[in-house]
Amino acid sequence: MQKLQWSDIHLSGPERTVVIRSEVSKTRRHRFVDLSENAVAWLEVYRQRGGPLSGKIVTCGRSELRTRRTANWCPAGITRWIHQGMRHKFCSNWLAVHKDVNKLVLLSGHDSVDTMWRHYHRGTPENVALDFWKILPAQTSQKIVPFARIS
């Protein structure tokens, strides 16, 4: 994640993807990950709020990133972070909805269809997975001011 560039994300056109360059990939394989409708919606909100769209996506170092993540856990009710948990959540929810283990192998960079099937088949019920793909930013035109800034 810390090696991805904003230029690796393609939001326009019919195929909205993240390009995982071989020099960035853990497996050293070039691959293309389709962006879901809700991922595009979140990125659009980021863009609208003035988030930078050039250079590295993650601009802080590994230590600072870890510090920022752990600072967000408590308010979010997270007591334990599962290593690769977001990747596993993506794979389980993707397979529950799309039911194409072969494409999931290509998207995720795994080597084995058997491993994917064993770990992710029925890992998440389809109705739960459908809800996951519907998580969208709040639709509001109001300016939101954090309570910490109100005097």
Give short descriptive properties of this protein.
single chain, mainly alpha, 2 domains, three-stranded antiparallel beta sheet, 6 helices, 42% helix
Short description:
The chain is mainly alpha-helical and 151 residues long. Helices cover 42% and strands 7% of the residues.
Description:
This protein has six helices and three strands, in the order βββαααααα. It has helices spanning about 35-50, 60-75, 85-100, 100-110, 115-120, 125-130; strands at about 10, 15-20, 30-35. Strands 1-2-3 form a three-stranded antiparallel sheet. α3 crosses α6 (about 125-130). About 10% of the residues are buried. The mean pLDDT is about 85.
